[in-house]
Amino acid sequence: MRMRDLEKASGVGRETIRYYIREGLLPEPDRASRNSASYNDDHVARLKAIKRLQEERFLPLAVIRSLLDADDGERWLAPAAFPMLDALLAARLDPAGDSGRAKVPVTDLLQRLDIQGFEVAEHAATGMISISDDGLMSARDAAILGSIKELADIGFTADLGFTGEQMRFYLDFVEWVTAQEMRLFFEHTAGQVGEARALDMAERGVAIINELLSQLRTRALLRKLAERRRVANDNV
Question: Which pTM does this prediction carry?
Answer without folding.
Answer: 0.64
